[in-house]
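Reviewer comment 2.1 asked that we show a complete input and output for one of the modelled complexes. We chose the NAP case, as it is the one discussed in the main text.
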Amino acid sequence: MAEASGSPATGCLVDLKGQTALVTGASRGIGRAIAVKLAACGAKVVGVARTLEGLQGTADAIKAAGGEFEGFAADVAKAEDVKRVVDEVEAKYQKIHVLVNNAGVTRDGLMLRMEDEAWDDVIDVNLKGTFLWCRAVGAVMMRGRYGRIINISSVSGIRGNPGQANYSASKAGVIGLTQTIARELASRGITVNVVAPGFITTDMTDVLPDKIKAEVKERIPLKRLGAPEDIAEMVAFFASPASSYVTGQVIAVDGGMTV
Ligand code: NAP
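Response of the prediction step:
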C-alpha cells in the first residue's frame, strides 16, 4: 500500500534518498517550494541565493520537516561564484545528481523604451546564469554518469509577452540552451528539461495590480493562479529516476494558459 502511494512519510511520488540537489534562487517563491519538495523526497538540498540571510527561511522550513539543507551565497551570473560553489559542493558531497536553474529576475518595459542595462541584467541572470550552472554542474554530472537538469523558463519564453522583450528573450534562450545540451549530455545518462510556469503567486507577480491578476485569471482555463508548489511537483518528476526517458522537453505548468 505504502509503495503504491509513494513515500508515506513525505507524500512524495519520487524517491531522491541519497541524492544531492542544487537549486538556484532557493530563498523564496518557486525556488523555495522546489527546495522544500526535493528535500521532502529525500534529497540533500544545496540552495543558492545572493545572501545567506535570504536562505534562512528555506533552511528553517526544510530542517523543521527533518530534511537536509545547506545554503550558499552566490550571484548566479558570476562565473567565479558558480565555480566556487560547485567546487565546494563537489568536494563535500562528491556528486550532484540534480540541478534546478530557477533564479530569475524581471525588468519589464516596452521595447522602444528599454534601457540597455535592463536588457543586460535580465539576460545575464536568466540566460547566462543558467548556462554557467549547466556548464559547471554538467561537468560534475558527466564524471558521475548521471544527472537531472531542470531549467525554469516561462510561458513568456514560449509565446512572448508585451513589456517583457528582455525576459521573453532570456526564457526562450533557456529553451534553446536546454534542447542543445540535452543532445550533448544524453550519452552520459544526463537529462535536461524545461518547466515553463504560467502565472504563479510569488514576490515576482505580487507587484502587479489586482486588475491585471484578475484579467490573467480569467484567461486561465483552470481559473486559478498557480502556486509555487504546482511547479515543484513537476520539477520533482523531472528530478527523479522515473523521468529517465524524457529529455529536451518543455512542459508548461500554467493551468492551460498556452493551450
Ligand atoms: P522571486 O520570488 O522573485 O524569486 C527569485 C529568486 O531568484 C530568489 O530566490 C532570488 O534570490 C533569486 N535570484 C535573483 N537574482 C539572483 C542572482 N543574481 N543570483 C542568485 N539568486 C538570484 O521569483 P519566482 O516568481 O519564484 O520565480 C522563480 C523562477 O520562475 C524565475 O526564473 C522566474 O522567471 C520563473 N517564473 C516565474 C513565474 C511567476 O509567475 N512567478 C512565471 C514564469 C516563470 P535573492 O533575491 O535572495 O538573491
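Strands lie at 20-24, 44-49, 68-73, 98-101, 147-152, 190-197, 250-253. We note this here for comparison with the apo prediction described in Section 3.2.
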